[in-house]
Amino acid sequence: MSDEIELKLAVEPSFVDFLRQEITHFRLLAQDTQFLGNCYYDTVDHLLAAQKMGLRVRQQNGQYTLTLKTDGEVKGGLHIRPEYNVALPNAEPNLTLLVEKCGVNLENFAQLSLQPVFSTDFERQSWLVECGKGSVIEVAFDLGKIVAGEKQMPICEVEFELKSGCTIDLLRFVRSLTLESAVRLSAASKAKRGYALANAQAVEVSHWLDKWREFLQFEQNSRNPVDKLSALFQLEQALIEETFAIDVHYFSVDFLRTVERIGAFFNLYHYYTDNARLLETIFTQQLSQNTIGLDGDVLADLLESNNDLFTQIRDIIRLHSETKNNQLALEKLKQLLQTGQYVKRMINLISLTLDH
């Protein structure tokens, strides 16, 4: 078993040209282009998904690998998950072999009756790069589709996986890229998206005012600054993921829905600007402990970007109030959330909330 540590970005197909150029600034150790066919399996009642596990058989260069990913941690687009891998002689998911070779210790695991749920088929262009101090990162651009029966959805994302080094090295690497537009952190794995497609799950729109009140209650009761920031960060990332997952028609037909959605982001950015002291406290603590190699410019960048976001969200609110154009306001909001500046800000927040 090993921990998979990767940062995932949702991008546009043209992003691959940008990657090729950016990678020339680093020492290239290897590169490859392959087609990966993946079939995900579960029981009829989706027992594995209920336990936040993903089981797949991957076909790559005529070889088969069975992978079990267990429950881990997701902070924004940073995914940290234990995984087990075993080579297979064919495409059948042999659970007994997984138990014997990898020591998976789950009750009655090998006796589960499995069936295919969905597939993820994509071309992967990958580069293995060294980014200083011995840190090695695999950059993988995936372009393809998720298929569940007759339903499909596109895959277009970049995964930055840490092969050697520290997590902070991975964050520094992505932050160093000259990211611009049409890019955002993605907390949704291919497996999560695949299950949603297979189950025809409609996006449940959250009541963000209630969630905001819950956060404020948690903030009042918590004495740990990192816990407060972690809760705020997770709230923000969930809000972003939901905003992009909901059909635009849901907002465009209703003025108040649009007001509430933009208002949720206003609350976030207003809190960040009003509570700059929280970020300063965490930064000072971690800098003094010197346990994660925090960059000195993280705090200044965060304070500046939070102020910029607060200004820009007020401009969007003003635009929406004047034009009553729901679609235009949502487009402006999504543009704001898909900038390189926003991605780097989120990476800085992850840096502050990393476990020591």
Automatic annotation (TrEMBL):
<feature type="domain" description="CYTH">
    <location>
        <begin position="2"/>
        <end position="201"/>
    </location>
</feature>
<dbReference type="InterPro" id="IPR033469">
    <property type="entry name" value="CYTH-like_dom_sf"/>
</dbReference>
<dbReference type="Pfam" id="PF01928">
    <property type="entry name" value="CYTH"/>
</dbReference>
<dbReference type="InterPro" id="IPR023577">
    <property type="entry name" value="CYTH_domain"/>
</dbReference>
<protein>
    <submittedName>
        <fullName>Inorganic triphosphatase</fullName>
    </submittedName>
</protein>
<dbReference type="InterPro" id="IPR039013">
    <property type="entry name" value="YgiF"/>
</dbReference>
